[in-house]
Amino acid sequence: ELNVDASAVSSASSTAQGLATAFEVFAPRPCLGWRPLLSGGTLAEEYSWLSYAEVESRCFALGAGLRSFLPPSEQPSTEPCAEPAAAPFFVGLLGAVGIEWLLTDYA
């Protein structure tokens, strides 16, 4: 049985704030899991997992990479949940549903 006190996350006022809190509170716990594809096209019996800390790290790395394409005058704040300094900059991405897509969504 997994006992989780989600009160810190449930009091968040935005999705971004909730994710930031979950990454901090649940850092060592499993967060995103998948069954690897084996040779022959079958799925492994066991799941592979990324912890909340690993997901946070990958999301921040992806976000930093995307921000690097912006000119310096349009760089957003690096503070989580900060208000944008300028008009939002939108990027469209297309991909198959999977761990990479979820990480991109969270970034």
Helix content percent band: 25-40%
Biggest sheet overview: 2 strands, antiparallel
Distinct helical segment count: 4
Give the distance, in angstroms, between the N- and C-terminal Cα atoms.
Answer: 30 Å
Q: What strand order characterises the main sheet?
A: 1-2
Radius of gyration: 17 Å
Order of secondary-structure elements = HHEEHH
Mean pLDDT score, rounded?
Answer: 82
Class inferred from helices and paired strands: mainly alpha
Q: Would you report the number of β strands? A: 2
Q: Report the uncertain regions.
A: none
Gross geometry = flat
Strand content: 5-15%
Structure, explained:
This protein has helices at 7-10, 15-25, 52-67, 99-106; strands at 30-34, 48-51. The protein is flat, with a radius of gyration of 17 Å. The protein has a two-stranded antiparallel ribbon. Helix 2 (15-25) packs across helix 3 (52-67) and helix 3 (52-67) packs across helix 4 (99-106). With 107 residues, it is mostly helical. The two termini are 30 Å apart.
What's a concise summary of this model?
The chain starts with 6 loop residues before the first helix and ends with a helix. α2 packs across α3 (52-67) and α3 (52-67) packs across α4. It has 107 residues and is mainly alpha-helical.
What are the main properties of this structure?
107 residues; two-stranded antiparallel sheet; 4 helices; 8% strand
Layout: helices, strands, pairs:
Elements: H1 7-10, H2 15-25, E1 30-34, E2 48-51, H3 52-67, H4 99-106
Antiparallel strand pairs: 1-2
Helix pairs in contact: 2-3, 3-4
